[in-house]
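Page 47, continued from p. 46.
Same chain as before, 263 aa.
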Amino acid sequence: MRLKVSNIDFYYDSIKALENVTFEVNEGELLGIIGPNGSGKTTLLRCINRALKPKVGTVLIDGRDISKWGRKEIAREIGTVPQGFITSFPFTAFDIVLMGRNPHLDRFSREGKRDLAAVKNAMELTNTQHLAERRIDELSGGERQRVIIARALAQEPSVLLLDEPTLHLDVNHQLEILGLLRALTCQSRLTVVLVSHDLNLAARFCDRLMLLNSGKVHSIGTPDEVLTQENMRQVYHVNTEVRYHSLTRSYNIVLLSPTNGGG
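Result:
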């Protein structure tokens, strides 16, 4: 399933938040969106799933313009893991994941065998079966995040969007979550787009990176092509040393100093 975003512009009142954003993500690919605070990363995700409506531009899934779809049809194709899921009700983990089936249900209809099978599969993929009867507010940060991902997977989407999925998690849970997403692209052929502030983790797990700056695409390509000293200087206004470790296939971006005058 191919996701194509073409010429997206978005405004908050008179303030332009995104300008001419264009890119594609293929089936089974993990794209990481990086950039400084205020560069438009979360806004872009919300334009992709039509939580926000762009002023101009289109979002296509396999060539179909989703602006012509209803909310349920969009939710059947695009699963979203928002930043900082909060609920005031003590739902169990199973209840939370079951909510992912709502786009497949008619009004007042109850879940059937297919819905329960989808929930079981989503919880198996995320290794959350043993948490099914636990209350969501009793879970650790890593456990809770895996349950929220399971909820999105229960929608059986072709595209998965995640906004800072490792935020506030400790290192072992960060690696666990990103390893899970990497496996989903390989095993389930999901198209995955995630926003991350952690450049090293994004470079390690993503096939490609897209660097946003002031609402525009500054660079897109492999981690080698995007995480250059010049890009770091131009966008983050810091001097860096970018090191690649071939044994672990990981990057280490060492911050050396701010650039003079922020440029």
